[in-house]
Design brief:
7-stranded parallel β-sheet; alpha/beta; 260 residues; binds ligand 1JT; 7 helices; Rossmann fold
Length: 260
């Protein structure tokens, strides 16, 4: 039991296809207790049954753009648990129109919104939950290759994820003083609520299936396994990192595979 009696707060569960669901199952399977945030009543209706299924201790409202809601989430967690060991951040948002067309057409408001929800929220949650975080705790967040390279249509999210990955390095230094570690998982494309409706997403999945070293797409359980490792004592020397869970796709210099 890698995480026996560890307490994990999960941000970003929406349904049973969510990356947060894959991570939750893995942490639960290793003995962790779970609590879940939800943003808005529509998501609450989906999260509560899943929390039940996963033996979740409690759920709470949290729109990460609201300092008040984050503070209330901390208060509720303190009342229920007193302290925590793990924080999972699997939250991102951009307006649909900003995930297509020219990146140059991103509006000031769309840019601010994507960066606020997808990148600043990690800083805000780390700061707010730091007083509850036990020594040697762990934080995990989610990123994507579009942070590192130009990826068609990923646009403002690429910039938001680049900021998020830099946040991880700077937060790693601050949190490291108490042995708290923070890492990002760069997952290959996965069909979730966030990615459904992204035009051309099926083509991206097909491309990875054809051209990645493992010749398949990754699953939320693949991500869950790496999240479990990162949250456990097995990764005690690892912080500030971005780990790829992408069937090896990122190692390729070209997608021209010879003789296949
Ligand atoms: C968001 C969305 C963040 C989709 C995301 C995301 N991070 C990865 N994806 C999947 C994806 C999306 C595109 C893509 C490749 C992967 C949706 C809205 C909220 C934030 O383009 C190649 C566009």
């Amino acid at each position: 039991m890698l995480l026996k009696d560890k307490k994990a707060v999960i941000f970003g569960l929406a349904n049973n296809r969510s990356i947060a669901y894959g991570i939750s199952k893995a942490l639960k399977g290793a003995g962790a207790e779970l609590a879940f945030s939800w943003a808005g009543e529509a998501i609450r209706k989906r999260v509560e049954p899943l929390a039940e299924e996963l033996g979740g201790a409690f759920t709470f409202p949290c729109d990460v753009t609201s300092d008040e809601q984050i503070a209330a989430a901390v208060d509720l967690t303190r009342k229920n648990w007193g302290d925590i060991d793990i924080l999972v951040h699997a939250v991102a948002f951009a307006n649909r129109e900003d995930l297509q067309g020219r990146f140059m057409d991103t509006s000031r408001a769309g840019y601010a919104l994507a960066l606020d929800i997808s990148a600043f929220s990690l800083i805000a949650l780390c700061k707010a939950f730091e007083p509850l975080m036990n020594d040697n705790g762990a934080v995990v967040t989610m990123t994507y290759y579009g942070a590192d390279k130009w990826v068609h249509n990923y646009n403002v999210m690429g910039v938001a994820k680049a900021a998020l990955q830099a946040n991880v390095r700077y937060l790693a230094y601050d949190l490291g003083a108490r042995g708290v570690r923070i890492n990002a998982i760069s997952a290959g494309p996965i069909k979730t609520l966030a990615s459904s409706g992204v035009s051309g997403f099926g083509d991206i999945l097909h491309h990875i299936d054809k051209h990645s070293p493992l010749k398949r797409n990754v699953t939320i359980d693949d991500v869950g396994g790496t999240a479990l490792y990162l949250c456990s004592d097995l990764a005690r020397g690892v912080t500030g990192e971005v780990l790829f869970v992408d069937s090896g796709y990122n190692i390729s210099g070209t997608q021209l595979a010879l003789d296949e």
